[in-house]
């Protein structure tokens, strides 16, 4: 059998399995964003979705391109894409934001840098849905300046003691572990004294609190670490070399988003179906002004669709540039999402301020507006994407830095004693 025939055969078997085991996606499929009570992962909802993921895993359709020795199938990416295309017509397991982070970002980063023992323990549990891992990246005082984190782990005999706090962790309240970026060495420049630990979120000394957001959800969390005990076995990658791991993670976070956007963005020949539905709901389908707004959105959709496809192609053909190129996709989402959300609001013309229960077009327009800055901030702000494109793609001079060569301990001391005078 040729490669193409093998792939077609695999696709046919996957389709047959999906038809026999999963519910087809009906017209009432849920939108990307919904409301607080819908997005809350109660223990019952989590157990239900984990059981569904287990079913997919047992059938051999989880981690299709992940190494077979760690519970994956070890097949080429094309097989995974074929399955995803077929699965797009069915209700698949949905483990929410923590599930997306686990499979799309943390699991892949651990695969790239974790010790074989760590991989043997955790990756099969990740693929079967038993284990959810979130990103403990941002300190309250270090987001864009990621290398400035001050949450620290100090060695004490054969254990490490973790203290500090993290914030804006998506989905931590129902996750099992957090991949946590901490300072392990204060006597070297800031990028060189960082280490990643896999921290059990139910360990003694860990407190997870939820944060209520403007859209009514409370999926963000903040965590406090008080003398949490860890060991060398919990380290992901090398001690003090966490910056390398962070680069891999950011590439998956930004690149993964670009690829997902290209695969899931609707066919742009179908003119902004959500906005047409909205216009119809508020009786403006024949209104020239509303039609102009829909056309504006459609033109942007087409451009964005082609940008995403081109980026995915370039990233696949040159993996060394993938991290830098991913910034374009992330920047496009960060700039475009607010524009599109505002177009929807103008079309709704007041219909998105209040709505009847069950009136989804108005509710979606309002929720999209509240959520439209997500992509402009998460995983690196639009300003940071522009910096990254300038420096890593266009070869422009690096931003001036006063703290990248000095031991981090001195940088912090100097900042504490700063008189406020510049120069
Ligand atoms: C939807 C969402 C999900 C998130 N999920 C997670 C998560 O799961 N885990 C996690 O750890 N974090 C998460 N975050 C946090 C996110 O990574 C940070 O908010 C982000 O990195 C920005 O950091 P900050 O909030 O500290 O802002 P700051 O870094 O304080 O930035 C404030 C402003 O200053 C600008 N700025 C800062 N430095 C520069 C510079 N050098 N040049 C130009 N402009 C600059 C920024 O662009 C921004 O406009 C999430 C955030 C969002 C919105």
Largest sheet: 4 strands, mixed
pLDDT < 50 runs, ≥5 residues: 29-37
CATH superfamily of the largest domain: Butyryl-CoA Dehydrogenase, subunit A, domain 3
Strand content: 5-15%
Annotation, overall tally of beta strands: 8
Q: Count of helices? A: 14
Protein architecture, described:
The protein has 423 residues and is of the alpha+beta class. The protein folds into three domains: 20-131, Acyl-CoA dehydrogenase/oxidase, N-terminal domain (Butyryl-Coa Dehydrogenase, subunit A, domain 1, Orthogonal Bundle); 135-240, Butyryl-CoA Dehydrogenase, subunit A, domain 2, CATH 2.40.110; 265-393, Butyryl-CoA Dehydrogenase, subunit A, domain 3, CATH 1.20.140. The chain contains 14 helices and eight strands. It has helices spanning 3-21, 36-39, 43-58, 77-87, 96-113, 116-127, 242-264, 273-281, 288-317, 322-348, 360-371, 374-377, 382-393, 408-416, and strands spanning 133-136, 152-156, 159-170, 177-183, 194-200, 206-211, 220-230, 235-236. A four-stranded mixed β-sheet has the order 1-4-5-8, with helices on one face. A hairpin with an 8-residue loop joins strand 6 and strand 7. Helix 1 packs parallel to helix 4. The protein is globular and about 70 Å long. Residues 29-37 have low confidence and may be disordered. The structure holds flavin-adenine dinucleotide. Flavin-adenine dinucleotide binds next to strand 1, strand 3, helix 12 and helix 13.
């Amino acid at each position: 059998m040729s490669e193409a025939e093998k792939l077609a055969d695999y696709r046919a078997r996957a389709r047959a399995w999906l038809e026999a085991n999963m519910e087809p996606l009906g017209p009432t499929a849920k939108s990307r964003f919904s409301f607080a009570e819908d997005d809350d992962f109660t223990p019952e909802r989590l157990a239900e979705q984990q059981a569904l993921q287990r079913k997919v895993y047992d059938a051999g359709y989880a981690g299709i391109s992940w190494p077979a020795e760690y519970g994956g199938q070890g097949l080429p990416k094309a097989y995974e894409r074929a399955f995803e295309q077929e699965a797009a017509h069915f209700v698949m397991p949905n483990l929410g934001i923590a599930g997306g982070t686990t499979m799309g970002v943390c699991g892949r980063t651990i695969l790239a840098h974790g010790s074989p023992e760590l991989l043997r323990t955790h990756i099969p549990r990740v693929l079967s849905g038993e284990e959810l891992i979130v990103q403990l990246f941002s300190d309250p005082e270090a987001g864009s300046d990621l290398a400035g984190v001050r949450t620290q782990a100090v060695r004490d005999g054969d254990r490490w003691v973790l203290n500090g706090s993290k914030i804006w962790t998506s989905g931590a309240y129902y996750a099992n572990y957090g991949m946590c970026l901490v300072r392990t060495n204060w006597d070297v420049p800031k990028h060189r004294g960082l280490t990643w630990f896999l921290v059990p979120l139910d360990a003694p000394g860990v407190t997870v609190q939820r944060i209520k957001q403007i859209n009514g959800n409370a999926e963000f969390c903040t965590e406090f670490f008080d003398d949490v005990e860890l060991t060398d076995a919990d380290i992901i990658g090398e001690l003090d070399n966490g910056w390398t791991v962070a680069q891999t993670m950011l590439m998956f976070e930004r690149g993964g988003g670009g690829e997902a956007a290209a695969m899931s963005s609707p066919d742009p020949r179908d003119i902004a179906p959500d906005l047409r539905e909205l216009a119809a709901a508020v009786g403006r389908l024949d209104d020239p002004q509303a039609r102009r707004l829909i056309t504006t959105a459609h033109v942007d959709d087409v451009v964005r669709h082609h940008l995403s496809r081109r980026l995915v192609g370039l990233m696949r053909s040159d993996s060394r540039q993938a991290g830098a190129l991913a910034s374009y996709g992330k920047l496009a989402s960060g700039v475009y999402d607010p524009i599109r959300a505002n177009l929807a609001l103008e079309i709704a013309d007041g219909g998105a301020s209040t709505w009847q229960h069950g009136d989804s077009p108005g509710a979606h327009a309002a929720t999209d507006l509240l959520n439209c800055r997500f992509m402009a901030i998460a995983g690196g702000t639009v300003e940071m994407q522009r910096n990254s494109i300038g420096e890593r793609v266009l070869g422009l001079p690096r931003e001036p830095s006063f703290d990248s060569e000095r031991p981090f301990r001195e940088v912090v001391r100097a900042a504490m004693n700063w008189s406020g005078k510049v120069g």
